[in-house]
Amino acid sequence: MARVRDPAGYDGQREMILLNAAQLFAQRGYAGTSMNEVAAACGVSKATLYHYVRDKHDLAVRIAEEHVQRLEAVVEEVLRDHATPEARLAALIRSFVAEYALAQNAQRVLTEDVRFLREEDQQRIVGVERRVVAAFARTIAEVRGEDAQSKLGKPMAMLLFGMINWMFTWMKPGRELDHAAIGEMVADLFFGGVRAVKVPPALLDAEPLPGSEAQQSR
To answer: According to the model, what pLDDT value does residue 70 have?
Structure first.
């Protein structure tokens, strides 16, 4: 008699494998990570690992594709729930910063490792990415009062993604600024320029960094 698979247990184990693999890929790169290392990080045998994924390529495809599909779902939700272009853009910025906070390893796989995948998988994943970028571009054009096909919409969307994507190379967890505060700062900066950024409440009562007073007195 065939063994009945426990859906909750299977899905939980699969999610654990994807999370650990994403962390390894983010730290070492797709090419520098072996399936033996993934199995060890997950605390499972290699045979068990292959019960959930076919190979390393399949693992990277699932990480990148599920992540970008989640981002597209966030876009659809925001566009549905906010009436004005300004509210939609602000919500998109805050929502993406929050998503990246939870899935920064998967985001690095999406941005850095998709190039190692087969052409048909690349095209499918990049196709979703393009829809996400297009939604940002249209919203930016609407905020500017321009046609949806504005020539500035996409370049400005890519500049915005540049701010968000690189945030995790310098932001350290556990400091005064959390992801919600950063999301507000990015929205303020993008909407109003340098003078529009407000000091987050967490920084108002924070102790000055070592050496900052000496530097200010010079």
So the answer is: 97
Q: Is 92:140 a contact under the CB 8 Å cutoff?
A: no
Our CA angle for 159, 67, 58, nearest 5°, is 125
Domain ranges within the chain, ordered by starting residue: 61-199
Contact 64, 105 (CB under 8 A): no
Strands (E), 125-172: none
In the block, tokens 């010079």 appear at 218
One-letter identity of residue 115: R
The CATH topology of domain 61-199 is: Tetracycline Repressor; domain 2 (1.10.357)
- One DSSP character per residue, 91-133 reads HHHHHHHHHHHH-HHHHHHHHHTGGGS-HHHHHHHHHHHHHHH
Residue-wise pLDDT for 119-165, tens only, equals 999 999 999 999 999 999 999 999 999 888 888 899 999 999 998 88
Give the whole-angstrom CA distance, residue 58 versus residue 49: 12
Predicted local confidence at residue 181, as pLDDT: 87
Q: Which segments in the chain show pLDDT lower than 70?
A: 1-8, 173-174, 205-218
Provide the pLDDT for residue 96. 95
Phi, psi dihedral angles at 165 (to 5 degrees): -65, -35
Alpha helices in 35-84 (DSSP H): 35-42, 46-52, 56-81
First and final C-alpha spacing in the chain: 80
* One-letter amino acid for residue 143 of the chain: V
Tokens linked to 43:
């605390």
